[in-house]
Amino acid sequence: MRGRVFGRVVAPLILLVAAAFFILPLFAMMRFALQNVQVIDLRWSNLFDKWSLAPLWSAFSDDQFGRALTLSLKLAIGTGLISLLLLVPTIVWVHLRLPRARSTVEFLTILPYVIPAIGMVAGIMVIKPHARWFLNSDLSLIPFYVVLALPFTFRSIDSGLKALDLRTLVEASRSLGYGWIRTIVHVIVPNLRTAILSCLFLTVAVVLGEYTIADVLLKRTFPAFMGEYRGSDPKGGYGLAILSLVVTTLIFMIIGLVSRPKSARRRRARGTT
Amino acid sequence: MALIFTNPPGEGGAVARATAPFTSQRSRSWLGLVPFLAFLVLFLIVPAISVFSQALRGANGEFGFASMGEAFSGQNLDAFWFSITFSAGAAAVGTILGTLLAYVAASITRPRWLRNAVTAFSGVAANMGGLPLAFAFLSLLGRQGLGTKLLNGVGIDLYAGDFGLGEVTGLVTVYSYFNIPLMVLVILPAIDGLKPAWREACSSLGGNSSTYWRRVGLPVLAPSILGGFILLFANSFSAYATAAQLTDNSKIVPLRIGFFLGGDVSVGEDAVGYALAAWMIVIMAVAMILYWALRRRAERWQS
């Protein structure tokens, strides 16, 4: 009986309260950004009046916006490519030659939790006087973002490789005359498409979300612009935040979608061979 | 931003894959890791060591613990105390509510999509952080916030007491937004690992529901719950971006580090900033080692 009360009453209640807690802040932010009514004047009757995207357009037309977005896009592309160049060969190597090192490598990839962004940027500030030629460039953020994204990117590539019969693929490719580089480029990469896509999307999410390092180093990335723009135009700043949330959420949803059908496909393929 | 390390979608479990026999090439095999290790050393280990090299330096550049001591006394100690208090509070709230929510999600059988929806949403919300999260709560629970007004309507004055988004109560509320779903992701596999057979065995041996939870359920879940608590603590303790937008309260350790790094502090004082960062890395290291050990222990029951 107690189980039934829990299932019928308590459980739905908990879910409802949780849903309210998670949805209300987002709704409040959207309302603040996109509804042109002050909270003081807000009534149930005018809750749906005067919504408009105008604050977003004015944020877009700020001359710093384009530059910040371009920089963040460049950082995302650079971070994604370098992550792949670094991780794909390393993890392939670990799976083939050093399976016992896998947990060590995995442990190394969680080091960014031990040294959080604020600790990392403190270290960068120490190095800065000795490496201005490098750190003065905005793109010098890329390797640090690669490190910050490691816990995510490592896992996406690692689980992609786990699902392959890597040894057979590599042996077949090698015995047909391919060298290591061509094996990776022409055999492994095409089989890792989903994992590589997840890896790239995750780096985009990390770059779009990273604020700490950019803020301390005074780099004008998109999140840094968002924080600064809020000072002069709160509605526009909040609108940009909604936009980046939507993009990040879409990214996580796409990753969820592309990785699910693949396992189903694989199961089917295994069944037939 | 809040970082998690749970399995990405599509990954089955941590099953060790075919272990190839080690040959005499073993020592040369390690060379394949050199680029990766070099990258990590250059862009993570060197900055970390630099923090300690500055933190362990006295006024005249000699080795010493003066800065480390200063970073743990006076106003700095207050900051650590404040940060540890709200992080522990946020971790406790997240652990309890996250476990509860995960238990509810695990027990849902109908409608079937609901459980998947909870997990998928948790994956997104656990990674929510930074500016958007701060903005969302500013517009809900700020002085002119929508929620503040709604509460006023039912006679509750949120700001009558010492509530503030930059104070313990506010930070615990805001951080719960990513802590609760993170806990769901951490604890759900453990709850799924509770085998129905154990409950049956318990009841056929004469135990009731409370015996089951006291003697079987909670002991099996304990490492995951404790591990989750530590992870949530570390997550809250190191968050910078959200806190920076909610308040300029320099009682929060990451903000204080940022203040020392960016501010025009005198030459001797910047060492204190590095010492704060060094302490933070030490605390995070202890937390992550504990988490790693507990996770290993928790995985024993999840197959």
Write structural notes for this entry.
The complex is a heterodimer of chains A (273) and B (303). Chain A is an all-alpha fold. Helix content of chain A is 80%, strand content 0%. Chain A contains 14 helices and no strands. Chain A has helices at 2-34, 54-60, 63-97, 102-109, 111-114, 117-127, 132-135, 141-162, 166-175, 180-191, 193-209, 212-216, 222-232, 234-272. By secondary structure, chain B is mainly alpha-helical. Chain B contains 13 helices and no strands. Chains A and B meet through helix 1, helix 3, helix 4, helix 5 and helix 6 of A and helix 2, helix 4, helix 5, helix 6 and helix 7 of B.
- Total of DSSP H or I helical runs spanning 4+ residues of chain A: 14
CATH-level-2 architecture of chain B = Orthogonal Bundle
The biggest sheet of chain B amounts to: none
Structural domain tally of chain A? 1
Rg of chain A is 23 Å
Number of strands of chain B: 0
* N- and C-termini, Cα separation of chain A: 49 Å
Topology:
The complex is a heterodimer of chains A (273) and B (303).
Chain A: H1 2-34, H2 54-60, H3 63-97, H4 102-109, H5 111-114, H6 117-127, H7 132-135, H8 141-162, H9 166-175, H10 180-191, H11 193-209, H12 212-216, H13 222-232, H14 234-272
Chain B: H1 26-29, H2 34-55, H3 66-70, H4 74-107, H5 112-125, H6 130-141, H7 146-153, H8 168-192, H9 196-204, H10 209-237, H11 241-246, H12 253-262, H13 270-298
